[in-house]
Amino acid sequence: MVYFLGNETKLGMSRGVAEPKLTAMDAMIDKLTGAIFIFQIVVVIVLGIAGNVWKDTEARKHWYVLYPDEGPWYELLIIPLRFELLCSIMIPISIKVSLDLVKSLYAKFIDWDKQMVDVETATPANATNTAISEDLGQVEYILTDKTGTLTENKMIFKRCCIAGTFFGNENGDAVKDVELLKAINTGSPDAIKFLTVMAICNTVIPIKSPSGIVTYKAQSQDEEALVRAAASMHMDFVNKNANILEINFNGSLIQYEVLDYLEFTSDRKRMSVVVRDCSSNKIILLSKGADEAILPCAYAGFQTKTFYEAVDQYAQMGLRTFCLAWRELNEVEYHDWSLLFKEANSTLVDREWRVAEVCQRLEQDLEILGVAAIEDRLQDGVPEAIETLRKAGINFWMLTGDKQNTAIQIALSCNFVSPEPKGQLLLINGKTEDEVCRNLERVLLTMRITKAEPKDVAFVIDGWALEIALKNYRKAFTELAILSRTAICCRVTPSQKAQLVELLKSCDYRTLAIGDGGNDVRMIQQADIGVGISGREGLQAARAADYSIGKFRFLTRLILVHGRYSYNRTAFLSQYSFYKSLLICFIQIFFSFVSGVSGTSLFNSVSLMAYNVFYTSVPVLVSVLDKDLSEKTVMQHPQILFYCQAGRLLNPTTFAGWFGRALFHAIVVFAITMHSYAFEKSEMEEVSMVALSGCVWLQAFVVTLETNSFTILQHVAIWGNLVVFYIINWIVSALPRSGMYTIMYRLCRQPAYWNTMFLIVAAGMGPVLALKYFRYTYRSSKINILQQAERLGGPILSLGNIEPQPRTLDDTDDRSPLSISQSKNGRSSVFEPLLSDSPSAVRRSFGPGATFDFFQSQSKSSNYPRNKDN
Amino acid sequence: MDQKNKNSKKPVYSKFSQQELPAWKPILTPGWVIASYITIGALFIPIGLLAWTASDSVVEIVDRYDEACVPDDFSKNPQSYIQNPDIKKTCTRSIKVPKKLVAPIFVYYQLENFYQNHRRFVKSKSDKQLRDVKAENDTKFCLPVAYDYDNKPIVPCGLIAWSLFNDTYKISTRGKDISIEKKGIAWKSDAKAKFGSNVYPKNFQKDGLIGGATLDESIPLSEQEDLMVWMRTAALPTFRKLYGKINTDIEAHDTIKVEIQNNYNTYKFGGRKKLVLSTTTWIGGKNDFVGMAYISVGGICLFMAINFILLYVFRPRRLGDPSYLSWNRHPIT
């Protein structure tokens, strides 16, 4: 026996290694830093050469500088190196520290957010990765899992069809259906058989607590739902003792001995158990599985029509269906088969294939008992959340291990795709390369045509076709991926999910993957942002994810509120950091032109250090509280997210604006200082302090102008910072040993100093304010318009409200069947592979052409419901 | 935070943590913007006028003497004149007083194209040595003017002290000498804290290259006010330094005679020397720039305000008009 635990399991092995993530914004900041670095090198080289030329032509005449006539060879380097020292502040080191600080605060805001606490389980949202909040605001694609992410993953047995009779249709709950209870109590054999299969055809282990209450340990939520339902209908699965199962039916104990488990695989899509009834010694095969895997195995002459209808009907309600079947075996038949099964189980080569083949031999001539329908409710607010996010320009891809029809039903019910005629679903499937290729080309053509129309076109692809498409037609598929706003990928494996993420990433899209189960871990790690739902399938996804939330609907808030604010705030903070460094650096450069290009620093080292550490970093740090628009406005107008997605607030153009502002302000500060502190006032320490004060004053007003909402903290930081600036300098000026001794006191007593400050502020801010006002009013961006509307209380707030559209699966009854191209085939069933999204059901991708074909030739009727012609 | 909050996983509710602190959200409405431009204009123009009148009331006499004080024989080669110790450097200038100079009158010397802010120059001093008699060996920043030929430390060391300005002026009017007060021209804080009262000049300008002025070795540095003034380095290549104060008025239309000892060599690098007599007002000496700048900034602000008013009247634009939102025009499905 070989046990695999923890990371050695299939799941653990397929998890992959997480790579450190870098936000698009950080990448942009790095790029801009690179550009500034090149600019710095150019400045240093130009000034270095100019300095050496000036030295050789002019400085030697200035006898008081006492340049030696002949210096060592490296003397040429001294001036460029001096300039390098002066210009090194051009790239703000403080930006890294500031960014780290604010990023951790963004993450804290997510953790603290009361509106993202899942009330049911009291789990707050959690940001594991504190470094990528800005990326949330730039998401372009969301790849979502289905079960447990969009749905609650809380399976409840709702309806059934036993031997042609429908139960649960009236009150919507079969467990409480009087007719069914009557049938059970009267001992209807069909009903009892049906319940027996529900109760014991599974791998569930009942656990009895000391108080006598039985709880179930199940790998699959579906199985647990069936067992629970059976228990509530008096077929109580009470104990499992080695191979003996005990069932308490209406007070009498029935024992079954389990002979064999014919396990579920996602290719067989059914599971069976062989049991021996301990009282009658009869051997029975109990099967349950997908309609397509069970119904064809009925014995010849059995009328399956009603069951097909039942499956169809349930499918339209978005329920997951299981067909339950039964067959009595005789001893000899079982004995022969048992030998074959053991042999198959002990083969080393192709065991899975052999076992499946052997199982196939037993699972035939079945008596179909009925169809059980299980509901997996959509989570609260999922349709609204998806609609809002789609309005925000985010494209949705649904990646699920489920079957096409289930996926489509869920997609329709949660606004993923619009019903016809507005929406259109294009199917890509096929088992051979040719088919897939043809399908792909057809869909691409349709996409290209409908691109101009305001139509909601989505493509649906299944895992098999996806495998072929990714392998052989990657280019065409990539084009399709770019053209399509919505896609549904069904029956995909965890690694395929990751591949799709990679594909979108390779097209330079920001992707967010959201999932709840272990099979989503790869995708979550691969995506730019991974979001885990801390749900029922364990915490694996939530642990691997960058963010974990309790419910899917919190994603809206995570992206539109936290992501958007983070992006806006970082955009301002990073550009401002460059601005203030450039400002002081430009002044140094200008000063070098009046100091004989020798590389003298106008500012002393204490001032330079304090400028970066205190005077300019504190006011900008509180910009983490800045809100350009209120949360409500953003939620009402999610389209505004476009500004973040397109990177409108931080790009080379906006950066050029800040660069220009730094240059302009440096000119203002330098020119005014040098002119008002000329002649007898031009004392080095004083001039330096006047210029520094000018910079600090200007930056206070720049922050003020760029702040959209002032909380008390902002006022304290901006104006308090100015006060602190004076206090610090008074303190330094009080130290006799410092170079600045008495300087600040002197300046503060001079009217000329204050005149200069006001002049610098007015001359520096006047044009900036005028430009901003003009753009704000006459060339306003959408953000500006919404700001104006929000703050003036314009009519806009009443527009564009998203009316809540409560849509649950329950009221799908009275909706006309959604016409999707699929239904032309007349057969549209909802099928859920057992254990599909649960950890044990990770589907392996087989080599081309193997298993599917094998199963088709083996099964009696190979009407495998693939729709080649839609 | 109390224990209960620490243990529960639920987020702590506070206005800060929920980002719900009450906030003032101003927007740039035409009213605000136009009003602030008008206010700035209305404030700046009067201040500018005040500053300009003040500057205008300052009487300033500037006399450039570096070229005029070179005898004609040397005008081709002024350096050989200034470097020749045998030639008398005395030079007399007559200056007309256009307006009455009211005491106190400040006497400055102005140097142009003199880089006191040069990197080699500005650092070349030792604060410790100037302050502390025991630190006379602290000359590491003073090179190349740190030690004399006997390897004894120079006090005060460094290029700044070494290049001390050494022209002198004697002023007389109507045949009467006007005394120039040389006391109290340096910053008091310098005399108290920066220059030691027990530090005396030593080995200064003794051998090797002679730079500027020599210092009286019997007077401590804290009383060498010319040195202190000189050592407050200027940030610009054109600067004025206080030479002394005159405490008597000089009447208008008088002619003052200035006897200059023209010692300082600015000829080598083409620098200029000027003698400046100036009165002072609340903004300091003569400085037309501040007044003019205030008036122009104020004027531009008013001009902006008028433009914005016109724009507002002739091209009104409703703020926050939803029809400007593109998605309201072409709704996204």
TrEMBL record, chain A:
Domain P-type ATPase C-terminal: 542-779
Residues annotated as transmembrane: 32-54, 582-602, 608-625, 655-675, 712-732, 752-774
Polar residues bias spans: 818-828
GO molecular function: ATP binding; ATP hydrolysis activity; ATPase-coupled intramembrane lipid transporter activity; magnesium ion binding
EC number: 7.6.2.1
Pfam family, one: PhoLip_ATPase_C
Topology in the lipid bilayer: Multi-pass membrane protein
SUPFAM superfamilies cross-referenced by the UniProt entry: Calcium ATPase, transmembrane domain M, HAD-like, Metal cation-transporting ATPase, ATP-binding domain N
Primary site of residence: membrane
Alphabetically ordered keywords of this record: ATP-binding, Magnesium, Membrane, Metal-binding, Nucleotide-binding, Translocase, Transmembrane, Transmembrane helix
Oxidoreductase as UniProt keyword: no
Name of this chain's protein: Phospholipid-transporting ATPase
Taxonomic classification: Eukaryota, Viridiplantae, Streptophyta, Embryophyta, Tracheophyta
Automatic annotation (TrEMBL), chain B:
Lineage of the organism: Eukaryota, Viridiplantae, Streptophyta, Embryophyta, Tracheophyta
Stored PANTHER family: ALA-INTERACTING SUBUNIT (PTHR10926:SF56), CELL CYCLE CONTROL PROTEIN 50 (PTHR10926)
The protein's name: ALA-interacting subunit
Swiss-Prot/TrEMBL keywords: Membrane, Transmembrane, Transmembrane helix
Transmembrane spans: 32-52, 292-314
Record-linked InterPro entries: CDC50/LEM3_fam
Chief subcellular location: membrane
Keyword match Transmembrane: yes
One annotated Gene Ontology cellular component of this protein: plasma membrane
Family: Belongs to the CDC50/LEM3 family.
Localisation per UniProt entry: Membrane
